[in-house]
Design brief:
507 residues, mainly alpha, Alpha-Beta Plaits, 3 domains, 4-stranded antiparallel β-sheet, 12 helices, 6% strand, rod-shaped
Length: 507
């Protein structure tokens, strides 16, 4: 495995090179230092003005409280919008026109130009407080740099003024666009609600007096209504009427049979005679007379006057009973006719109630759907109108108040943020010395690696990296002439040619 070549460049060799080529590196150092001094002389100090601003949220439609941001993403989004506004052309141009051109401006008639706006855009920054991530705090700083301290403060104040105005205009435009969109939404929702309400009103007009019954059927949890209860009562009356008609018909049949044989009247049930008290009394009297006659016959003969009187009384009661039976039969026939008419009337009423119920049952599903659709579209209209009211409130607040507030005024500090001329000159001198050393290292020809003298205790393996030394150069290789003055370009070309020749000489 081959070893990695190492350089044998020593500090004393670097000092020897710098001493030998002192003109070269001093010329380079002097050139760089002169350029730095010229820059320090011509450059102007840079002053930075910082305006502290605080941001709040809109007071309306906030669940977390008036003016508070519910999420950090909302705060970050608003601050990013402000950052874009602060660097927008409209804000910067208005701020430059408000402050006016600087004293050394040559073309004050065309102020501000696109170049002036672009130059100011690079000098405007929006930063959070120290130690805080952007978008997590409501406080932020608007920083502006300028070559004049007073002008930096004026520009910072002007940009903050224009930022407030532009942000209010943006909120107003946003609210106006929302109002336009919500107006169409409200109109569409209102037209749909009007169409549904018209269809619902048409059905309600067709129902007439049954509208309350349909609403009762729709609203009641059990589906019961007054019409259903009325139908149930009519059905009960019909059953009672039919039962009464059936009882009178049976009683009339028995009375007709009893006309020829009054004894059959005794077999008539008492519940059938409850509606005929006179006939019931005669029946009871006939039974009592028969019992009396039977008791007398059991003690006396048939020719006894008491027995004859009892039989006569019994016959008289039977005669009166037959007469009464004829009268009761006629009244029962009339009552049967009334019962039939009553049954027909009740059946007609029941048919009407049942028909109304069937008609309402057929309309109940459509009516319920229309009611639900109307209720839903009413809520949509209410929500759209609420959103429109909120958008109008946001537009009114955008014109009335700003969400951005200043904390004190712009602060420019007591020192400029750019380095002082002395610092620039010292940095130029140090950089020139470093550049001069680099030029010397690049323009001095190296020696061949195989001509490096052996060092005790170190491997004799040739090193691939060059070691700079004039004594180690081969006899055939041209040595650098200290007294010969070369330009930097000639020195670099000569160094490249010497390196290529040395590489070709290596085995």
């Amino acid at each position: 495995m081959s070893r990695i070549p190492q350089s044998t460049f020593a500090p004393h060799e670097a000092a020897h090179l710098l001493a030998t080529y002192w003109r070269r590196w001093l010329a380079t150092a002097g050139l760089v230092a002169a350029a730095a001094g010229l820059y320090a002389f011509l450059s102007k100090p840079s002053w930075q003005a910082s305006q502290t601003l605080i941001l709040r949220n809109e007071a309306t439609n906030q669940d977390t409280g008036p003016g508070k941001f519910g999420r950090s993403e909302d705060l970050k989004s608003v601050q990013e919008t402000l950052l874009e506004l602060a660097k927008s052309q409209g804000v910067l141009a208005a701020a430059l026109r408000q402050v006016g051109p600087p004293a050394d401006c040559a073309l004050q008639e065309s102020w501000p130009s696109a170049r002036d706006i672009d130059a100011l855009r690079r000098l405007v920054t929006l930063v959070p407080p120290k130690g805080v991530e952007f978008g997590t705090a409501e406080v932020f700083h608007l920083e502006v740099r300028d070559s004049e301290r007073v002008r930096a403060g004026l520009l910072d104040r002007a940009i903050s003024d224009q930022l407030q105005v532009r942000f209010q205009d943006l909120r107003d435009a946003k609210a106006q666009s929302m109002i336009d969109e919500l107006s169409k939404t409200v109109n569409l929702a209102q037209s749909d609600l009007d169409a549904t309400t018209s269809r619902l009103a048409k059905i309600e007009r067709q129902l007439g007096s049954d509208l309350g019954e349909l609403r009762g059927m729709h609203d009641a949890a059990s589906g019961d209504s007054a019409l259903r209860r009325t139908a149930a009562e009519i059905d009960g009356d019909l059953r009672h009427a039919r039962a009464a008609e059936q009882a009178n018909r049976q009683l009339l049949g028995m009375l007709r049979q009893s006309l020829s044989d009054p004894g059959r009247l005794l077999a008539v049930p008492s519940r059938l005679l409850d509606a005929q008290p006179a006939l019931k009394r005669l029946k009871d009297g006939l039974v009592d007379a028969q019992l009396r006659t039977a008791r007398l016959k059991g003690r006396m003969s048939g020719e006894h006057p008491l027995v004859i009187a009892a039989e006569t009384a019994e016959q008289e009661i039977a005669r009166q009973l037959r007469d009464e039976l004829a009268v009761v039969a006629g009244s029962l026939e009339a009552e049967l006719r009334l019962d039939q008419r009553r049954i027909a009337l009740v059946e007609s009423q029941l048919g009407q109630a049942t028909g109304r119920l069937e008609h309402l049952a057929g309309l109940r599903a459509d009516y319920a759907n229309l009611l639900a659709e109307t209720s839903h579209r009413t809520k949509l209209v209410e929500r759209a109108e609420q959103n429109m009211a909120e958008a109008r409130a946001a537009r009114a607040s955008a014109k009335a108040a700003s969400l951005i507030s200043r904390i004190d005024g712009p602060d420019t500090g007591i020192r400029p943020v750019s380095p002082t001329p002395l610092t620039i000159v010292l940095a130029g001198i140090l950089g020139g010395l470093t550049a001069g050393f680099g030029v010397v290292m690049l323009t001095v020809a190296p020696r061949r690696p195989d001509e490096v003298p052996a060092i005790p205790g170190r491997s004799a393996e040739p090193l691939a990296l060059p070691v700079f030394s004039r004594a180690a150069l081969p006899a055939t290789f041209p040595r650098p002439t200290p007294n010969r003055k070369l330009s930097l370009r000639q020195a670099l070309e000569k160094a490249i040619a010497d390196r290529a020749q040395l590489t070709a000489m290596q085995p």
